[in-house]
Structure formats: structure tokens, C-alpha cells
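Appendix B. Extra example for self-study. Work through it before the problem class; the solution is given directly after the inputs so you can check yourself.
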Amino acid sequence: MSSEPSKPVRIGLLGRGTVGTAFAELVAERADAVEAATGRRPELSGVLTRSEGDAGEILERSDLIVELMGGTDPARELVIDALRAGRPVVTANKQLLAQHGDELFAVAREAGVQLRFEAAVAAVIPIVRTIQESFGVTEISKVFGIVNGTTNFILSEMAATGAGYGEVLARAQELGYAEADPSDDVSGADAAAKMAILARLAFHTQVTLAEVSYQGIEEIQPDDLAYAKELNLSLKLLGVAERRDGGISVRVFPCFLYPGHPLAPIEGPFNAVMVEAPAITEVTMSGPGAGGLQTASAVLGDVVSIIAGDAPVHETRVELPLVADVTSSFYLYLEVADRPGVLATVATVLGDHEISVKSVVQRGAGEDARLVMVVHECLESRFAAAVEALGELDDLRSAPRSIRVIEKEF
Ligand SMILES: NC(=O)c1ccc[n+]([C@@H]2O[C@H](COP(=O)([O-])OP(=O)(O)OC[C@H]3O[C@@H](n4cnc5c(N)ncnc54)[C@H](OP(=O)(O)O)[C@@H]3O)[C@@H](O)[C@H]2O)c1
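Solution. C-alpha cells for the complete assembly:
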């Protein structure tokens, strides 16, 4: 963008829903502050919704485009048109970036304009900026955290009240923490899209949504959370992107944490992201991961960076293979027959698969006998084989249940 201090910066706004409305208000409210900080005053030059505005005309009379429509169609085409026309773009659209990031970044590079997207991951937490700028040349080993507020609210409520998943989900919907169709959030798909974006940034490599394996929270039982309390563990839906065995692993899964872990106290609809690297040890940032005003605030931050003329961030590219089989520690829940020797049989099966037990809780009797244990880190494929072998035992009254655990105690 040319620097003409006296001229306002004209912002074309695509989408005026929850975030777009808050953004339009914030631009009006903070215009003086933006002008004081950058020398230029922002103003809206047009708005596109399903019932108002013309995309071509808005582009024509804008210096910068803010995309807050969501979805990939027509957002992808409109963003590409804007970039090709030399207009920087700010978006909060994680699906668009997770599915079409490569194409969009390539177009932005060719056009020499910025594509900023702080609000697409963990809304107001400045994780994108931190990875791109503060840690831009740091060899990041791992970026992980709680990147979905809906599921964190549900898990926190289940742990606090002992209520079942369905009951708590209905409460989350009443309170506006879950959408009428919550499937993207509770299945882990929303977190997977955010982890694809974070992995790309952290490791400077191409990661598409299809390469992120994810598991949600729909199968979590109140029992799991009750035993977790006894074992002093808290349950979170984690997104994890890490370097492993010369490649990377990007996954989303429910996971138990020991007390003292920086993510353990994050309750309710909050997000928190940790970055680990030898040069920085670890950094944790937490805050609201959604909300109209909070997301709009992150969008405005990107707009200010563009107006201030911060240099575009160009990606460097390396090829890193996805590592399929990694090591994890696990919580294992078994409903067992109340017979002598059952614990020994279970221990033998685990031993045969070279899995060692860290802690065991034995509860109930007769029809209610249960074994709950945490096993030390082992290859996930080996653990899956052990679970399959346990499932074939006559001593089990139902299928084994398992959840990953971060074993590191703080
Ligand atoms: N809500 C949050 O807390 C949050 C947090 C982080 C990121 N985000 C992201 O921010 C973006 C916007 O979210 P939101 O919650 O504000 O969405 P929203 O309330 O559903 O608003 C979407 C807006 O885009 C417009 N739109 C959608 N499809 C369109 C089309 N084909 N043509 C023209 N206009 C269209 C809608 O127009 P109509 O008004 O005519 O329907 C509406 O104004 C999404 O990418 C979302 O993932 C949201």
C-alpha cells in the first residue's frame, strides 16, 4: 500500500454477522486510536452480505479487504480476486486457510500483498503473530493447546457437575457456547483446521486439513472424569503439532493432564496455546477463543499492522513427512469380571505388548468391578494392539475405553 498519511484507509467488509458487526462498530470506535498509531484513519467503504453490496464495486473502492463471511465458497474466490487486485486481505476464516492456504499464500506472494489471519486461530490470543514474528526464526518443536472453547466448556462442566455429555451439550447450547449444530466443534474438526494452520506456521511446511487426524469428545463418559479426579487428572481436547522422528505429527484428541501442567487450569470456553522450542523453553498464552468483539479485535489488530506497513510475512518451504505412529501415554478403563487373577491377566497382556503400568485404581465388586489405569508412554500402534487383545478376554464385561495422557508432571 502507498503511504498517504492524509487519506483514509478504505476497508471493504465481506460479511456482517457476529464478527462483522462487531468489527464495523470497533472500526468506528477506535478510528482515532488507529489514526494516532498509524497516521491514517480507517473507514468502511462497503459491506457485502447475501442481501446487500456488490463484491466488484466494493473491491474497486477499497484499499483493503476484511473477509468475515466464513465458508470457502465464495470466500476463496473473493479473497483471490482481492489479492490479485493488489488489496491486502485480513480474514478470520480457518476453514478457508486450512483447505486452501497453499493457493491463497501463493497468490498473496505473487501479488506482493499481505494476507493476515490472526483471528482464525484462538481469536484474540496473538498466537499467529507470535509464531510468525517473535519466533519467526526459532526452530519450534511443538505447538499445542486448547483451541476450541465449546469442547473445553463441555469437559469443564462434565468434570465439575458429574453430568453426562448430552446434558452438558444442551446447557452449552442454551448459554450460546455451542451452536445448534455442534458437530464441527465436538468432533474435533474445528480444532483440526486450526492445528493445520498452526502446524504450517510453526514448521514452514504444507499441512492440509486432510492430513490432521482428529478425535472428538462425544464418547467421553462421566465415569472417565470421575476416575480422572481420583487419579488427579483433568481432561482437555488438545490440538498437538510436533516434530517427531524427522517428520511432523498433527493431531487432535482428548487428553488427560497432570496438575501443574500449564493447560490444566484452563476451564470453561477459554483457549490456551503453548509453544515449545529449545531456544524459548515454553511459552503459554490463554484467553477467549471466540466471541464477536474478541475476534473483531484480533481482525482490527491485523488491519493496523497492514496500515502501519509491517512487512509481509513470506513463508519458507520445507518438506516434512507426516509421522503416523507416535508414542503416547494412556488412561485405560476396563469393566472386568470379579474373579481372582483378572488383574494378573490384564497385566500379562499389557506386558506381552511391552506396555508398563504407571498407576492402577481397582474399584467395585461383582457386576461393578472396574480397573482404571494409566500406562507409560508407548507406541500408539502397540497400545492399540494391546487394547484389541484385551477386548478378546473373557474377563472383560465391555469393550475397553482409552484416552491419551500427557505423562509429564510439572
Ligand atoms: N463467531 C466467532 O466467535 C468467531 C470466532 C473466530 C473466528 N470466526 C470466524 O469469523 C468468520 C465469520 O463468523 P461469524 O460468526 O461472524 O459468521 P456469521 O454470523 O454467520 O456471519 C456471516 C456473514 O457473512 C455473510 N455471508 C455468508 N455467506 C455469504 C454469501 N455467500 N454471500 C454474501 N454474504 C455472505 C452473511 O450474510 P447474511 O447476513 O446476509 O446472512 C453474514 O453477514 C467465520 O470464518 C468464522 O469461522 C468466528
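Self-check: The radius of gyration is 24 Å. If your reasoning did not lead you there, revisit section 3.
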